[in-house]
Specification:
Elements: E1 6-10, H1 14-26, E2 30-34, H2 37-46, E3 51-55, H3 63-73, E4 78-83, H4 88-96, E5 101-104, H5 109-139, H6 150-162, E6 169-172, H7 179-188, E7 197-201, H8 207-215, H9 232-235, E8 240-244, H10 251-263, E9 265-267, E10 274-276, E11 280-285, H11 289-295, H12 300-306, E12 309-312, H13 323-337, E13 344-345, H14 347-355, H15 361-374, E14 380-381, H16 388-392, H17 411-429, H18 434-441, H19 445-454
Parallel strand pairs: 1-2, 1-3, 3-4, 4-5, 6-11, 6-12, 7-8, 8-11, 13-14
Antiparallel strand pairs: 9-10
Length: 459
């Protein structure tokens, strides 16, 4: 048992107080006792107790007085009241006012130990929940989005303006620029921070399941629908829903999404009942939605409904001065996560990173830093640790091919090799997700799959 768990026993009956103290000490707790309410409150002022076991009737104060004072002085402390059968009604009142539980006399010591354990479990869960919430809010503070370039300063200025609004936001930018990180930062710094944040990657869910995932379904709506299931919109009610890769949403679902946004209500698949919604919508895309509207592949009315406030994230190649800060941040983060001493990077290696065009943007940089730390035991990352493709690439904006040799070239083979290289880079940047890789390359997923087969990139 953790010897830091401290329990205070309050009882004016000497024999009863001593028996309780000995029982709890034998269970491994550090126990202090008090015979009066005043002496107990004096102890509570000076010491932090996880649990207090108090008799309801004391010579100078009631157990309810003790409870009310504990809630003011130490609200995290759980209070268990002890009462006779005749005063059970008062004990129930104590629970309504915040006591964890009550035990009647004569005390069953086994029951008391179980109640104390449950009180400690509840306290632990609440403590962990508060810690995780602080961690989440801290993780998604604006100052955890790294950058001091003019392009990022514009992003920060826009975020500060829109963080407290409920207007729909469309975050645009290439894959890997941090669109979800920005969406979470807006949520956890806004007025809905204590409500749910639900992220949906529209490109990662099969089209046949997407409608059910977004809007929910009722039992029997389709084969396999064995019970009612709320959708992502209901799960995000009163909070924020983040619709990533919104450009991949099929046209028939675009119409249904538009209705949900217009009517502020959702209808589960197979049901004719509606559920009222109060959800903030943040969507994101790496596609040119305006161009898709012109081509007729994205609804114009939905585009304007989602794009009330546009927020564009620049690619890393347009904010290369931020690479030094991002590299330092990721070095510290990865070393901490791996339990290693702090690592650094030398000038030559950093210059190589600054000259690379980063098609996978910030995500690609973070993945590279993690890989280099894993593959070296040295405290300093050097040029030898940087992959050849990073070092060998021309600076951003320069051509990626050489002049034609005098003897000519095999055009088909050269194009095939170049296509193979680009597809490999796109798949690596997209973490192997073909839909994302296709978006990076500006082609359909089916086209990408055919090219992979033709180039024999899959066994």
């Amino acid at each position: 048992m953790d010897d830091k768990i401290k329990i205070l026993v309050i009882d004016d009956d000497d024999s009863g107080r001593e028996a309780l103290t000995m029982l709890l000490q034998s269970a491994g707790y550090e126990v202090t006792s008090a015979a009066t309410g005043e002496s107990a409150l004096d102890l509570i002022d000076r010491e932090q107790y996880q649990v207090i076991v108090s008799d309801l009737f004391l010579p100078d104060k009631s157990g309810l007085d003790i409870l009310q004072n504990v809630q003011k002085i130490s609200p995290a402390t759980e209070v268990i009241v002890v009462t006779g059968h005749a005063s059970a009604q008062t004990a129930v009142r104590a629970m309504k006012e915040g006591a964890f539980d009550y035990i009647t006399k004569p005390i069953d010591f086994d029951e008391l130990k179980i109640v104390v354990l449950k009180a400690l479990e509840k306290q632990k869960l609440l403590s962990e929940n508060m810690y995780l919430r602080r961690q989440l809010q801290g993780r998604f503070e604006f100052n955890n989005i790294i950058g001091s370039s003019p392009a990022m300063n514009l992003v920060f200025e826009r975020m500060n303006r829109i963080v407290k609004t409920d207007s729909a936001i469309l975050v645009s930018g290439e894959s890997g620029t941090g669109k979800e990180l920005v969406a979470r930062a807006l949520h956890y710094n806004g007025t809905r921070k204590d409500r749910p944040f639900v992220a949906v990657n529209c490109s990662a869910i099969p089209e046949t399941l997407l409608e059910s995932e977004l809007f929910g379904h009722v039992r029997g709506a389709f084969t396999g629908a064995i019970k009612d299931k709320p959708g992502k919109f209901e799960a995000a009610n009163h909070g924020t829903i983040f619709l990533d890769e919104i450009g991949t949403l099929p046209l028939h679902l675009q119409a249904k999404l538009l209705r949900v946004l217009q009517e502020h209500e959702v209808e589960r698949v197979g049901s004719n009942k509606t559920v009222k919604l109060h959800v903030r919508v943040i969507s994101a895309t790496n596609a040119d939605l305006e161009h898709m509207v012109k081509r007729g592949t994205f609804r114009e009315d939905l585009y304007y409904r989602l794009n009330v406030i546009p927020l564009h994230l620049p690619p890393l190649r347009e904010r290369q001065q931020d690479i030094v800060y991002l590299t330092a941040f990721f070095l510290e983060k990865q070393c901490r996560l791996m339990g290693r001493a702090p690592c650094s990077i030398n000038k030559q290696a950093l210059e190589a990173l600054e000259q690379y065009s980063w098609p996978g943007n910030v995500r690609e940089l973070e993945n590279l830093i993690e890989r280099m730390i894993v593959l070296t035991d040295a405290p300093v990352i050097t040029l030898e640790d940087v992959p050849a493709k990073i070092i060998g690439e021309k600076p951003a904006g320069e051509a990626r091919y050489n002049k034609m040799p005098r003897e000519g070239v095999d055009l088909v083979a050269t194009i095939s090799r170049y296509e193979h290289s680009l597809i490999s880079e796109a798949l690596e940047s997209a973490g192997g997700i073909k839909a994302k890789a296709a978006a990076l390359l500006g082609i359909n997923r089916t086209t990408l799959v055919e090219k992979i087969k033709r180039l024999k990139m899959e066994k």
